[in-house]
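User: two proteins, same treatment. go.

Assistant:
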Amino acid sequence: MTSNVNGTAAAGETLGYEQARDELIEVVRRLEAGGTSLEESLALWERGEELAKVCRRWLEGARARLDAALAEEAEDEERDGAE
């Protein structure tokens, strides 16, 4: 397992949305608190970008599933109304 500056798994590994979101919140908190070296700040920033992409992919997938379910429901309603 690959680790980052705070010892958690790399974003390339499978992370659930909540796990990625919670880690992103922690990254932002650490960046806002300051007191880190330039190198650590850059590593945190990069990790935050990776985590944001993971969250975005989860949300896009959820949106696609919701859109598909709504489209299927609309088709079912049209079929039922045509009978």
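Protein 2:
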Amino acid sequence: MRILGEGQYEIADAHLAELNELDAALQSAADRGDEAAFAAGLRTLLAAVRARGTPLPDDAIVPSDLILPGEESTLREVRELLAGEGLIPG
């Protein structure tokens, strides 16, 4: 999983359900156009990725299955990424 502007994290499958719940809350905030809830939800999702994931070395070149926006991204910048199933499919 890549966080734009930050780096890549390896995430164990055991954490995907939790991350999907956070993604659903983020999707809901985006759907409502609630910028404050969106910003808080994005911070929470990214913090969970950082806490649960294992950072990959900067020199590791591997494809990312999922790409998350950076923490400073606005709702407008991210709306297109949230189309369909959200940031984390499933």
